[in-house]
Amino acid sequence: MTKHYVAEPYKIKVIEPISVTTKAERERFIAEAGYNTFLLRSNQCMIDLLTDSGTTAMSDNQWAGMMLGDEAYAGSRNFLHLQEVVREYYGFRHIVPTHQGRGAENLLSMIMIKPGDCVPGNMYFTTTRAHQERNGATFVDIIVDEAHDSQLDLPFKGNVDLSKLERLIAEVGAERIPYLCLAVTVNLAGGQPVSMANMRAVHKLCAAHGIKVMYDATRCIENAYFIKTREEGYADVTIAAILKEMMSYADGCTMSGKKDCLVNIGGFLCMNDEELYQKASELVVLFEGMPSYGGMAGRDMEAMARGIVESVDYNYIHHRVAQCRYLADKLDEAGIPVVKPTGGHAVFIDARAFLPHVAQDRFPAQTLAAELYVESGVRAMERGIVSAGRNRETGDHHRPKLELVRLTLPRRVYTYAHLDTVAEACIAVYKRRGRIAGLEMIHEPKVLRFFTARFQPLVDLAKTKARQPADIEKDDVSAQYRPAVLR
């Protein structure tokens, strides 16, 4: 059966040349970057799938809006436009602009968390958990167990397990839970969505205990699309209407506008509660800027307002998800293990299944991302043990069940031909996977280490010939490797 992938619902007006490098150059570049793709320069990458954060191609309408920037220090008309659009499409009474999503996370954590609190959520996210822990809270994962199995093909693997939430409330008391952080979608589970029914049930349970629900709304448009295409009763409902209903089950949200608001910088914190708004307005002056601009220029707020309107267009989001599905199908057909079902912003390769002979302490996802870059110039991101960081109490690594490489698709940037190149590179690495050893961490930052950690490769001292995957003993191969000397 022939699969159909919708054509781009836009035409290309401006182009940006991309770099084409040799393999020898890439081997040098990745070594200089400490085998961390975050430390590569953009001009060293041919196809950059590191992130979809701030890498959007803005529309002609957004660029036109940039020329209407009102850069007043207070009371910018662009803020008033953004406020109007957020109220219309998201439904929240108050908006506090920030320079990006983590600025909103910082404000939310500071105004709501007390030392000793617990913040439940449907799987951690790196910066979110860092802000929660910095303010004295403990993150508690309450996502459904199925989310930790990359091969289970279920429509809403981002759902909250209500029984886990009820047990947590009974164990610690509602007074120690300042809010529930609900990510829509769940990035580190592979971009998995939350069903409307689950959002409704979570809101009802939390309301009964006086617990606020705050969304990480970064990719809420993708979540709305999956509700439309996967959940009964929503096939004929518009993306805008689904989004508005989703937000009605929350007391507020953090937003990184660099994703589903289709801009290169900016974010905001929303809430309905007047007291929380006053607290956030006071703190934003200290950390970001005036409450009417936060960390954003007027022109950026105008681009964001227009981007929000564009984001609910079905043709846009349908094509975006189709591109992800196209790449995932290419890899799946080649036997490469990818997270199922495909999410809306990226394709996630299961690095544990790809490199079963590389122990998790040898950073298989980090290794695979580096190998993919050397093979092709495609830059991807590790989402596994490195991203998870360390347990604050024991000092040991957090050991997530999912050890993934994220191939993140920027919005409206690449074509299907680019994705063919990515697929070919992944397949080439997969064919030589038996010769890939792993990495050792040689520099480890204390906070959010995945951004700037440095590594060195492990080499097989016993033999150098290629080994076939079928010949690899999963339990003892990684012990054969020793740190390579960087030259």
Automatic annotation (TrEMBL):
Its EC number is 4.1.99.2. Gene3D superfamilies: Aspartate Aminotransferase, domain 1 (3.90.1150.10), Type I PLP-dependent aspartate aminotransferase-like (Major domain) (3.40.640.10). Its cofactor is pyridoxal 5'-phosphate. It catalyses: L-tyrosine + H2O = phenol + pyruvate + NH4(+). GO terms for biological process: tyrosine metabolic process. The modification N6-(pyridoxal phosphate)lysine is found at residue 259. GO terms for molecular function: tyrosine phenol-lyase activity. It comes from the Bacteria. CDD domains: Tnase_like. Belongs to the beta-eliminating lyase family. Homotetramer. This is Tyrosine phenol-lyase. The lineage of its organism: Bacteria, Pseudomonadati, Pseudomonadota, Alphaproteobacteria, Rhodobacterales.
